[in-house]
Amino acid sequence: MNEQTSEIVAEKKPEIDSNKIKAKAEEALQFCKSKKFNTDFCILIDMSLHSGVKRFFVWDFKTNTVSKQYLVGHGCGSNQWSSDESKDSPKFSNEDGSHLSSLGKYKLEGRSYSDWGIHVKYLMHGLEETNSNSLKRVIVFHSWNLMSDNEVFPKGSPEGWGCPTISNNTMKEIDPMLQNSKKPVLMWIYN
User: Fold this and answer.
1) Confidence (pTM)
2) What is the CATH classification number for the domain harbouring 81?
3) Does residue 20 lie in a domain region?
4) What backbone torsions phi and psi does residue 21 show, to the nearest 5 degrees?
5) What residue numbers bound the domain in which 82 lies?
6) Does 7 map to a domain?
7) What is the pLDDT of residue 11?
8) Which InterPro entries does the UniProt entry name for this protein (predicted)?
9) How far is Cα 89 from Cα 191, in angstroms, rounded to an integer?
10) Which of 43, 32, 34, 68 is nearest to 188 (CA)?
11) Residue 148 within a domain
12) Residue 41: how many CB atoms within 10 A of its CB?
């Protein structure tokens, strides 16, 4: 393979594995039922996908389909803040000060003011050993002016300090769904 061919291969947009999403959604539904979470929808974030493609999925349990799909940023770690250096190979940590995102299931509950984006954030209560420090680390779900509404592949989304960040327009769509939920909503970040 010559250099030019390998560049073309490297630039090929990753395909979304619908079977993987369905399997996660089935597991998520059982979890939501057992924990008395919202069983209308959940949020699934597949960090194995390049950050320039829409890897944030709103899963509709009633229709068993992805109802909405968006870009989402992840933590920069030791890279420069707002770069896209780990766009296709993010690292993860539950350590305070790591500036990395944490994998696992979260309970989204507690809407309040954010200094970022449209000034709305949701507390992310980590439910597993891999994300148990999320509140202490101030890892929250919020929007960010630097995030795009559209896919930016082969570029990556800007990287922050570990929060899953979405565009302002995306938050304007997601916020009412979260506000109208009578039960906590599951956000599951996986790789």
Assistant:
1) 0.93
2) 2.40.440
3) no
4) -65, -45
5) 42-56+70-190
6) no
7) 74
8) YkuD_2
9) 10
10) 43
11) yes
12) 23
